[in-house]
């Protein structure tokens, strides 16, 4: 059901129940779309990019990174104290497994965000063509500079994600911050990257800004759900494309509702409007 707006044009907040229905519907539609042969084939591109990226990162940076971490860990007084205590009671050396875990926690997310970036830039147009023809055929494509907007958005989100992930790694030593930070940063990556790509081809700039503002909570909730699914390793194979499908269904439906409430001008008027 389209959201209603008061006379002054200010959006009314959707109720949690109606927003929950919209989000659930997006996930259900995305699951159906994911089972289509073309979308199953689309899974291969970001997965292979992420896999190759992970192999290259581990091959090129594993040894220097673990050597550096081992040197740094030797200067952490808390780590040294805990390591000495564990060894003294006959358990294990903390440093033996801490360094490889930290190295993997640094390198593997880089390959993951690379796969998501590839999905956002190259796979999302395929996703939009697929769902657009089948379920949103009447939705006009009025986006401006879609490719440039998508690429720029993917770059800044990837950079912030990588830096944020790296600088918050020390907090992983405080339970349960490892789980909380992992979910937060992946929710950030999903929501900030895919909410734009989902509507950039169809929505005019002012429509895009309005939807991002009005549906910000929904975009973030979807991001958190996908981030939780991301904790399950087998999901990594399909998640870049499936997440694109979820955001495409949610974003295009939101745009369709918006235009149903505020119809576009006639085509002859619309053609004279500035970009």
From TrEMBL:
Ranges in a coiled coil: none
Keywords noted in UniProt: Membrane, Transmembrane, Transmembrane helix
Domain of life of the native organism: Bacteria
Record-given protein name: EI24 domain-containing protein
Bilayer topology term: Multi-pass membrane protein
Cellular compartment(s): Membrane
Transmembrane segments: 39-62, 96-128, 149-167, 173-194, 218-239
